[in-house]
Automatic annotation (TrEMBL), chain A:
Belongs to the ABC-4 integral membrane protein family. It is a multi-pass membrane protein. Keywords: Cell membrane, Membrane, Transmembrane, Transmembrane helix. It is found in: Cell membrane. One of its GO terms (cellular component) is plasma membrane. Its main location: membrane. This is Putative ABC transport system permease protein. Residues 80-241 form the MacB-like periplasmic core domain. It holds the Pfam family FtsX. GO terms for molecular function: transmembrane transporter activity. InterPro entries: ABC3_permease_C, MacB_PCD, Macrolide_Exporter_MacB. The chain crosses the membrane at residues 276-304, 324-347, 367-387.
From TrEMBL, chain B:
It holds the Pfam family MacB_PCD. One of its GO terms (molecular function) is transmembrane transporter activity. Residues 20-218 form the MacB-like periplasmic core domain. This is Putative ABC transport system permease protein. Its main location: membrane. The chain crosses the membrane at residues 21-41, 308-329, 358-379, 399-423. It is found in: Cell membrane.
Automatic annotation (TrEMBL), chain C:
This is Putative ABC transport system ATP-binding protein. One of its GO terms (cellular component) is transmembrane transporter complex. Residues 2-238 form the ABC transporter domain. Keywords: ATP-binding, Nucleotide-binding, Transport. InterPro entries: AAA+_ATPase (IPR003593), ABC_transporter-like_ATP-bd (IPR003439), ABC_transporter-like_CS (IPR017871), ABC_transpr_LolD-like (IPR015854), MacB-like_ATP-bd (IPR017911), P-loop_NTPase (IPR027417). It comes from the Bacteria. PANTHER family: ABC TRANSPORTER ATP-BINDING PROTEIN YTRE (PTHR24220:SF648), IMPORT ATP-BINDING PROTEIN (PTHR24220). One of its GO terms (molecular function) is transmembrane transporter activity. Belongs to the ABC transporter superfamily. Macrolide exporter (TC 3.A.1.122) family. It comes from Simiduia aestuariiviva.
Length: 402, 434, 238
């Protein structure tokens, strides 16, 4: 590094080359910092735990088209059949499937008088029976599961019970236990009997994704099409996809049974946009670093060609091979350092723009920092190969080439 | 002269294969990334209504109570839809929603299957220019007096009847017999603009039944049902009279006059409803007529992610440009002595400039071709890897022309400065030092 | 001081072997000014390169300052070049994008001197060649003779024991050539051993000792040189 001053003045005197490299590094830092920030944002989204035993929960739809069928009775019957199937750990009817992208959303208020009552946060509204808790595999941290006799046939019954997630309880009541609290939907009173540690809703991009409620309603049979959830060991799922239609068709053939997906598959589907974004941006980063280092290698190669005689002279004047390699590395680091400073400013400007136009969160400082560090490593590699070739230029070149 | 330049360019590229390869690679990667994100963007930003885009309008009503929803809902209530259906101003109009039915025919070999069905009015087909192969839509009378009539797609016809022309045949939906009145050709607008509410790139339905049948058959709603106040819906009748929104409504309004008249007509309806205690958010209660472009925007068919991607890849292309600029400078300056000789022999600046620009264009063209390959490969990998809709990753036809243009334009831009520098070479400088 | 015994240097190319030096013998003692002449292609530059450790040799024994340098490492020979030897080239070989001071500094930086010491030596060296006022100029802004003087200053700045010069006046007109020659003579007078290759018979005559290389071998004309210098001293009072 002891050559740094003459290198800087030499850089300042040579015209476009370093400027181009600088521009490239500035742009690279700006892009890579923001792209990697977006990637990590998306990966963090995808990583949020749902609270559900995703790989074990299979959802499917039964569509009954026999006009003579008593849908309510059939629903009860079908659930008994499902629970009897080998491999099934638990089964329930439901009105919506977690992480599936379609479902029910609703709201409670905390008092009977609509004028004074305050609203709880909006939530994903699951309707299920006493088997739903076990089917999801979610953890009850307070209170109790539903009693079978509490299960209502529709959401309109006047007095109901519900389980809510801890997130809702904390958002509305803070540290106070929500157990026994009564919430309302118009004139329907709902008593909270239990708290679920974690249960996500249907829409991964919703701000209320972590807020969920299970109300003690068996929604199956309310319409001609009913969705069921079955929990089984992952290795039994494939067999169940065959067994379930067989068993239910045996009971009554006038129905279509389809749309078998595990919650894990729904997750993959729901997050595919985010994964796509993360993947494309990753590709971009890798290619960008590749391009930058290829360009750098090319420029250094050119510089060496142009300075062949100079290098020979330096060698004749007593430069060691290491001195020559260091010369090019120092030159690179000087440009990199300048590029890093401007690049970090550019990155935060770009981040600001993205934040304003596309409501992205504020760029965290670590990303430009790591990017700059990475750039130093990558450019070192890009420079060191041609620089070592430069070091092999024989000192006798100084006398031989006139 | 041009061919001489071309020849010189090609020779020069071959003389410095590594440098040239680096440049072609840099352009191609930049182009590949840009084209990939541009392609996804283009498909999403595509307006399938074409020239009808500013005539077709989705009707949105501010029917919610105060302090509930912040925006116009994309769907409206059944009661409002029923009123809109009586309107006389639009050239064509249709209410619609999606349901699902179990399909069977008299052919016992084909097992019943569950299919999406669009419940709509006869106006649907003219609104969205649906191509008929045989027969046509049901009559407007059926829109008022329900009849079990159906329009089906070519593929459905083939599957259930073994022929394309199945007009007059009977198809069973949930075991009810419907008479086929029309068969349409394959029709799948992308984005699915007439109803993007459940997947804007989903396939279009290929079964259509009259909207007037909805209260009779109580078709389940396979789409969104939005409410802003609690209303238990125990029966289908509850749904029909509720404030819940679940129906889409489209109207074909030819010109500004028609739009004004229509808006006024709906205004008076809103006022009349307000007297009956509806549309309680008096300050905002209004109608919004969204033409197709606006509609796609309202439904966020084009996600902001895609804009970010396009913005970032444009910057990416800039990096590639700067990169190439540096490499070109390198390459050209290396040739300065040769240029000095050429200048001494009598080449004009303009000729030197032209020669180098031709070479740059050649490099750009090569890079563009390679870049198109990258984009094609990348899009394929993405379709494979993610459950992406095919429509999103098919290379748009126009890109086959746009890509080489961008590539050459980029290369020319990058080549401008180096070519300018080299054409200003003083012949004496290099001859003296030789 | 410098002693070459039976040095031979062979260039191996695909087709031919060139014997650039064969059985080359030469002794140079401290404080001498040796002028090397000879026809083109006879091996003068090769000899200088070997002497200056720019190139290795194929056979023989080479003692520099009493140290056998036939098998020193690359780094070690770089150190010797830097500390003991100063080079002056026909093409000056100044680095075009460094100013004069920075050019002269180059070997000093490799030696690891601090900035104060470097500054002192740069100023002193420029003083010696009479260009003290041109510190900040870039090489292309100088005439050939001035450039060569800067190159000499660069060679001197390290205070070498040896100065090796390969046709230092080859690119200069006769007036400038004489100036450069006078400069070198002054330097020699101050105690630095100089070996200079030249084509210029006038310059050759001025030196103490003239070594002629023919076909890679030495023809020493020391005696002639001595007699010439005697005549010149006797002639002076006349
Ligand atoms: N690198 C080399 N490879 C092969 N032959 C060389 C090389 N350098 C010099 N020679 C040959 O060695 C001989 C001596 O060259 P040189 O010492 O440069 O002569 P001069 O006396 O003109 O300085 C010449 O015949 C030359 O062609
Ligand atoms: Mg020579």
């Amino acid at each position: 590094m002891r050559n740094i001053k003459p290198i800087i003045s030499s850089l300042l005197r040579s015209k476009s080359g370093p400027v181009l490299l600088l521009t490239q590094i500035v742009l690279s830092v700006a892009i890579v910092a923001n792209a990697s920030f977006i990637i990590s944002e998306r990966l963090a989204l995808i990583d949020r735990p749902s609270g559900i035993a995703e790989a074990q929960v299979l959802s499917f739809r039964v569509y009954n088209f026999d006009p003579a069928m008593d849908l309510r009775k059939q629903n009860q019957q079908d659930q008994l059949i499902l629970r009897d199937l080998p491999g099934v750990i638990a089964a329930t009817s439901t009105n919506m499937v977690p992480l599936s992208g379609s479902g029910w959303g609703d709201r409670y208020v905390d008092g009977p008088d609509p004028e004074t009552a305050k609203s709880l946060p909006g939530f994903s509204f699951y309707m299920g029976n006493e088997h739903m808790l076990n089917t999801f595999g979610v953890k009850l941290v307070e209170g109790r599961n539903f009693y079978p006799e509490e299960i209502k046939m529709g959401p309109a019954a006047k007095s109901q019970t519900a389980l809510i997630t801890k997130s809702i309880a904390e958002a509305h009541w803070g540290d106070e236990s929500p157990l026994g609290k009564v919430v309302y939907q118009q004139d329907i009173a709902i008593t909270i009997v239990g708290v679920i540690e974690r249960l996500q809703g249907a829409w991964v991009d919703s701000s209320n994704f972590e807020y969920s409620v299970i109300q003690a309603v068996d929604f199956g049979g309310a319409m001609s099409s009913t969705t069921y959830l079955v929990r089984a060991k992952p290795q039994d799922i494939a067999q169940l996809k065959l067994d379930i239609p067989k068993a239910l068709h045996l009971e009554n053939p006038n129905r279509v049974i389809d749309e078998f997906y595990t919650v894990a598959e729904h997750r993959g589907h729901s997050y595919s946009n985010h994964e796509l974004m993360a993947a494309l941006l990753s590709v971009m980063i890798v290619l960008l670093l590749l391009i930058t280092s290829l360009g750098l290698t090319g420029m250094v190669m050119f510089n060496i060609q142009r300075r062949t005689k100079q290098i020979g002279t330096r060698r004749a004047l007593g430069a060691r091979k290491a001195d020559i390699v260091w010369y090019f590395l120092t030159e690179n680091y000087v440009i990199c350092a300048a590029g890093a400073v401007i690049g970090v400013v550019a990155a935060s400007q770009l981040g600001q723009q993205l934040m304003n136009h596309y409501s992205l969160p504020q760029l965290a400082w670590q990303y430009p920092a790591v990017t700059v560090l990475g750039l130093f490593v990558v450019t070192t590699l890009a420079v060191i190969l041609p620089a070592r070739r430069a070091a092999d230029i024989p000192p006798s070149l100084a006398t031989r080439s006139v | 002269m041009f061919f001489y330049y071309l020849d010189m360019g090609w020779r020069s590229i071959r003389k410095t294969p590594v440098l040239s390869a680096l440049m072609v690679l840099a352009i191609s990667i930049g182009i590949g990334i840009t084209i990939t994100s541009l392609n996804i963007y283009q498909v999403m930003a595509f307006n399938p209504a074409a020239e009808r885009s500013d005539q077709l309008h989705a009707v949105q009503l501010w029917s919610q109570g105060p302090d509930t929803w912040d925006d116009y809902s994309t769907i409206i209530t059944y009661q409002d839809a029923m009123h809109l259906r009586t309107g006389a101003i639009p050239r064509a109009q249709a209410a619609m929603f999606r349901t699902g039915q179990a399909i069977q025919s008299d052919n016992p070999d084909v097992l019943p299957e569950l299919r999406s069905v669009r419940v709509t009015d006869s106006g649907f087909f003219s609104l969205f220019s649906v191509p008929f192969l045989h027969g046509g839509a049901w009559t407007e009378v059926v829109d008022q007096q329900p009849a079990y009539e159906i329009v089906i797609g070519k593929a459905v016809s083939q599957k259930y009847f073994g022929k394309v022309n199945s007009v007059g045949e009977v198809l069973y939906l949930n075991r009810k017999p419907y008479q086929v009145v029309g068969v349409i050709d394959d029709w799948n607008p992308s984005p699915k603009y007439y109803d993007p509410t459940n997947g804007s790139f989903n396939d279009a339905e290929s079964l259509f039944v009259p909207f007037s049948l909805a209260p009779v058959e109580e078709f389940a709603v396979w789409g969104n049902t939005n409410g802003w106040q609690f209303e238990p819906m125990v029966t289908y009748g509850d749904r029909l009279v509720s404030e819940k929104s679940w129906v889409l409504f489209w109207a074909d309004l030819a010109d500004e006059q028609a739009r004004e008249d229509y808006r006024a007509w709906i205004q008076s309806y809103i006022e009349q409803q307000q007297e009956m205690g509806r549309f309680t958010d008096t300050a905002k209660a209004d109608v919004q007529l969204a033409d197709v472009a606006k509609w796609l925007e309202v439904n966020k068919v084009l996600r902001k992610d895609n804009k970010i991607l396009v913005a970032l890849s444009a910057l990416f292309l800039c990096v590639c440009l700067v990169n190439i600029l540096g490499l070109l400078l390198t390459k050209f300056l290396k040739r300065a002595p040769e240029v000095g000789v050429r200048r001494a022999i009598g080449a004009s600046r303009r000729q030197i400039f032209a020669q180098h620009m031709v070479e740059v264009t050649l490099i750009g063209l090569l890079g563009g071709a390679l870049g198109l390959l990258w984009a094609w490969g990348l899009l394929h990998v993405l379709t494979e890897r993610f459950h992406m809709d095919d429509a999103l990753t098919r290379l748009d036809a126009t890109l086959w022309f746009i890509t080489p243009s961008i590539a050459m334009g980029a290369a020319l831009l990058a080549g401008l400065y180096p070519a300018w520098v080299i054409c200003r070479t003083q012949p004496s400088v290099y001859l003296k030092s030789q | 001081m410098l002693s070459m015994k039976n040095i031979s240097k062979v260039y191996q190319s695909e087709l031919v072997e060139t014997h650039a030096l064969r059985e080359f013998n030469l002794q140079v003692s401290e404080g001498e000014f040796v002028v090397v002449t000879g026809p083109s292609g006879s091996g003068k530059t090769t000899f200088l390169n070997v002497a200056g450790l720019l190139e290795g040799f194929s056979q023989g024994e080479y003692l520099l300052d009493g140290v056998d340098v036939s098998s020193v490492s690359d780094n070690e020979s770089a150190r010797i070049r830097n500390e003991k030897i100063g080079f002056i080239f026909q093409g000056f070989n100044l680095i075009p994008d460094l100013n004069l001071a920075e050019n002269i500094e180059v070997p000093l930086r490799y030696r690891g001197f601090d900035s104060k010491e470097r500054k002192r030596r740069v100023e002193q060296a420029l003083e010696q060649v009479g260009l003290a006022s041109r510190l900040k100029h870039l090489p292309p802004q100088l005439s050939g003779g001035q450039q060569q003087r800067v190159a000499i200053a660069r060679a001197l700045a390290g205070e070498p024991r040896f100065l090796l010069a390969d046709e230092p006046t080859g690119n200069l007109d006769s007036l400038m050539a004489r100036q450069v020659m006078e400069l070198l003579e002054n330097i020699n007078q101050a105690g630095t051993t100089i070996i200079m290759v030249t084509h210029d018979p006038e310059l050759a005559r001025r030196a103490q000792r003239n070594v002629q290389i023919v076909d890679g071998q030495v023809c020493d004309f020391t005696s002639y040189q001595k007699s010439r210098s005697t005549t010149s001293t006797t002639a002076e009072p006349a």
